[in-house]
Amino acid sequence: MRTNHFAMADAGWPGCAKSLKGVILDLCGVLYDSGEGDGVAIPGSIEAVKKLKESDLQLRFCTNETQATREKFVAKLRKLGFDISVSEVFPPAPAAIAVLKERGLRPHLLVHDGLLPEFDSVDKTNPNCVIVGDAAENFSYQNLNEAFRVLIGLEKPVLFSLGQGRYYKEMDGLKLDVGVYMKALEYACDLKAEVVGKPSPTFFQSVLNDMGLKPHEVLMIGDDLLNDVGGAQHCGMKGVQVRTGKYRPIDERHPTVTADGTVDNLAQAVDMILGQRGH
Amino acid sequence: MRTNHFAMADAGWPGCAKSLKGVILDLCGVLYDSGEGDGVAIPGSIEAVKKLKESDLQLRFCTNETQATREKFVAKLRKLGFDISVSEVFPPAPAAIAVLKERGLRPHLLVHDGLLPEFDSVDKTNPNCVIVGDAAENFSYQNLNEAFRVLIGLEKPVLFSLGQGRYYKEMDGLKLDVGVYMKALEYACDLKAEVVGKPSPTFFQSVLNDMGLKPHEVLMIGDDLLNDVGGAQHCGMKGVQVRTGKYRPIDERHPTVTADGTVDNLAQAVDMILGQRGH
């Protein structure tokens, strides 16, 4: 009985923290809430990131953020008070650009104005694929029609979606995310999009590769049950959900995805992890 | 051999025309092409409608048009030269209003400005469902967010979609139709919309009821392979596709829906039908 008890404690949350070598954090809804201007840091999260950095755990940030270039985005986070650098942050756009180059594709972009500079060096003439990101206000009827017409005019239409989130939370309420418009274009053109970003296993694996760690050595903390927690678990990582950001109580009764742990916020998660490790 | 040959001719197109008692026509893409202003009649279609009206066949018009009230829409068609009256035209909005009353539902509307007067007498306070129509330019990010927030805030979200078309053709090109935004909201809220309009069997049946005819006595002519032809066939009617409107050559090689006949335009279809009937 005793052995079993210890085995379970070690395998589960927060017992698993003892054997961890790295942590991946989602950004929006975990570190900060977005909204007008730069958003606001979630209480305790600046200190929590600092504690993780001072620990012996490797730390990366994995985000489906596509409203700004990596540089601008990281500058915003630093301004909010977070100790974070560009090389630690993994968003979908650079991953998508790598795929474009690999396959000789020229995109038509339906993305946020803030993301456009990321694609400056990419050939966009005579497009043979469409990339949809979280374009927010750019998701006008006219712009969606334009992307649709490019796709329907291609002999072999290829659609990349930078993430597949349903919605996220800004300070003035829930907002529709890129996945909703991905589904719209999928239906319009009778095709299946290729998702670049969470929960794509290829995307998570690129972060693990950068850390030089195996999935079971890493814990993902996010506010999105399906894309953060479910996606990480699908790759063999542990997944913990925070009750901030887009979290909804109904997540804790989801029929197919169960988080390894659910915590009030990042600060609590980090205290539990470091507590288990004897810090 | 000879018997077989005749039997096949009678069952198929245009042989089936001999036993018909009624014809249902789609409007946009069959009678006229929409676009700026009132659109333009498709050559031969005004005369074709006239010929059908002078025949012994019953005639109804079944449309997923939701950009205007029935009265305004019919007035537009009459101005284009068509002999058509309000009582012959079956669009989704009146059918949806009947459902609302039956189930005590109060809608939040995401529809075209032109359709709003149709809902004048409907209680829209404190909405407990969402109706999405072909809102065209009203499909802004803000408006889609608003409909999403109503749905996600309901304990039992109910979404009605006035049709489920993917796109239609206007004079300046293909335009995204209501089905695309229905799919977007379905994904955002993890629900299934109830479709009012073609290809809903309930909707086709209401037209058959009005004609007092059985499905095998009626032929549907449309430009939309899935919603007109497939929908009608699913109800037991024959379905003929015209090569006007949103028709694309690829429709003739569709994996699951095969039209009973494909004709260049309505004029040709009507001449073939009336020719078989010895007119």
UniProtKB/TrEMBL annotation, chains A, B:
Domain of life: Eukaryota
Known catalytic reactions: diphosphate + H2O = 2 phosphate + H(+)
Pfam families: Hydrolase_6 (PF13344), Hydrolase_like (PF13242)
GO cellular component, one term: cytosol
GO molecular function: inorganic diphosphate phosphatase activity; metal ion binding; phosphatase activity
Entry-linked Gene3D superfamilies: HAD superfamily/HAD-like (3.40.50.1000)
Subcellular location: Cytoplasm; Nucleus
The keyword Metal-binding is assigned to this record: yes
Cofactor: Mg(2+)
EC number: 3.6.1.1
Keywords on record: Cytoplasm, Hydrolase, Magnesium, Metal-binding, Nucleus
Major localization class: cytoplasm
Family, as annotated: Belongs to the HAD-like hydrolase superfamily.
Function in brief: Phosphatase that hydrolyzes imidodiphosphate, 3-phosphohistidine and 6-phospholysine. Has broad substrate specificity and can also hydrolyze inorganic diphosphate, but with lower efficiency.
The protein, known as: Phospholysine phosphohistidine inorganic pyrophosphate phosphatase
